[in-house]
Amino acid sequence: MRLFVALELPPEVKDRLASLAGGLPGVRWVRPENYHLTLRFIGEVPGHLAEELDLALAAIRAKPFPLSLSGLGTFEKGGRVQSLHVVAERTPGLAHLQSKIETALQRSGLPAERKRFAPHVTLARTEGAALPKLAGFIQAHNLFRTEPVMVERFVLYSSQLGKEAAVYTPEVEYDLAA
Ligand code: 3AM
């Protein structure tokens, strides 16, 4: 199974994000049903390890926390802009949950994540976009903000890569409790 841990987003936030999509030739917009905030990409794991990871995630104790999205950004690789995202505020509640997840997964045998956690919601894959247009789009939407929403759970998703778009299926939900 190809797995990742993420936050789902409430419909009102997805609607706001979906309202940003459009007006950029050459980009592939993420489908609104696929919007999520990745806490940890796990990748392909055998079934027995998936069960261990599930147990470790289920043992995490963390409190609900507010989540706000604020501003736009891009990720680059090899001098190309790969994706466009909305930035999530790196609040103590979010950082705490992400660090607990990282620790739990490492204890269960996953290698450490080397990249620093940069919370975001991907809006589009942008390999085919013209850079000036992309820069203009980011400028035009730089004041994008969402009202804080309470995060009450996190989710283990499976991901099936498809030709057009990946299919993400919530496999297990883990509740946060005060
Ligand atoms: O949450 P976003 O959209 O930024 O790009 C994939 C997606 O990121 C990323 O995991 C999220 C859920 O699929 N992803 C895919 N392969 C990856 C890899 N090998 C990866 N992240 C890190 N390493």
UniProtKB/TrEMBL annotation:
Sorted UniProt keywords? Hydrolase
What stretch of residues is annotated with the motif HXTX 1? 36-39
Question: Catalyzes what?
Answer: a 3'-end 2',3'-cyclophospho-ribonucleotide-RNA + H2O = a 3'-end 2'-phospho-ribonucleotide-RNA + H(+)
Q: Which domain of life is it from?
A: Bacteria
Residues in the active site?
H36, H120
Q: Where is the Phosphoesterase HXTX domain?
A: 7-77, 89-167
Motif HXTX 2, residue range(s) on this chain:
120-123
Under InterPro entries, the record lists: Cyclic_Pdiesterase (IPR009097), Phosphoesterase_HXTX (IPR014051), RNA_CPDase (IPR004175)
**Enzyme's top EC category:** hydrolase
Q: What is its EC number?
A: 3.1.4.58
Pfam families, alphabetized: LigT_PEase (PF02834)
Family assignment from sequence similarity: Belongs to the 2H phosphoesterase superfamily. ThpR family.
Role played: Hydrolyzes RNA 2',3'-cyclic phosphodiester to an RNA 2'-phosphomonoester.
What name does the UniProt record give this protein?
RNA 2',3'-cyclic phosphodiesterase
Q: Which organism does this sequence originate in? A: Sediminicoccus rosea
